[in-house]
Amino acid sequence: PLDVKRCANILLHDINLFLSDSVFLVLDDLHRIEHTSHTAPLLSHIFDSSPSCLHFLITTRIPLRFWSKSLLEQSSITYLYTEDLALNHTDTEELLLSVLKQDVSPLEVLQLHQVTNGWIMGIILASHPFQHKNKNGLTSALLHKISSHDQLLNYFQREIFIDIPDELHPAFLKLSLLEEVPIKLAETVTGNDSIAEKLHEFANENY
Is the distance from CB of 6 to CB of 46 less than 8 angstroms? Predict the structure, then answer.
């Protein structure tokens, strides 16, 4: 069988030998594969054997469950949670003006930030009506469209709700009112004893 650790050692050796600048390896949605029999030992070996120039950016929806010396050394790890990724008012203004090239006023930036709570995808979606404003600013119809979250609702309906069974829609609409969803509370709010299993399943599938 293929000796994956030996292959990893070749890669790590070459990175250390030929690359002097910092290198960042991005592992997105690692929870999707970290429980497999081959992946966990391989990743632990890579983390523990990597040269100092190699850094890792890991995204996961659940805590990692495999053992690694590097992961246990808290001083070498920085954790970022969902709320840490929210944009502040200044970030929102920079995104709209410099990145998205939107012609927005300070008041409009404030409105968008309040509507989206700094959620970057929400800002992008909610900013679409700004492409159609006239020289006097946003029309009342466009302001209503933004404030009513039409863009965001359409996104959730098109990208998320379409893949969720109809019988679970009422439960998820109730849970959407909560910032955090403890399992016991979810069972009480929805009256569904199997909601914990569904939440875990959807989290693993990146809903």
Answer: no
Task: DSSP letter for 26, please.
Answer: E
CA distance 182 to 112: 29
Are 102 and 127 a contacting pair, CB within 8 Å?
yes
Q: With beta carbons less than 8 A apart as the criterion, state whether 117 and 86 touch.
A: yes
107: CB partners within 8 A, 6+ apart? none
pLDDT tens-digit profile, the chain (207 residues): 568 889 999 999 999 999 889 999 998 888 777 667 778 888 888 988 999 899 999 888 777 776 677 777 766 788 888 888 899 999 999 999 999 888 888 988 898 888 888 988 888 877 776 655 554 544 444 455 555 456 666 767 777 777 788 888 889 889 888 878 888 999 999 998 889 888 888 877 766
* Structural Rg of the chain based on CA atoms: 22
86: nearest Cα among 201, 179, 200 = 179
Residue 186 CA to chain centroid, in angstroms?
Answer: 22
Q: Exposure pattern of 84-97 as b/e (b: 16+ CB <10 Å)?
A: eebbeeeebbebbe
Kindly report whether the global pTM for this prediction surpasses the value 0.90: no
Instruction: Tell me phi and psi for residue 14, to 5 degrees.
Output: -70, -35
Are the beta carbons of 45 and 5 closer than 8 angstroms?
Answer: yes
Q: How many CB atoms lie within 10 A of CB 171?
A: 19
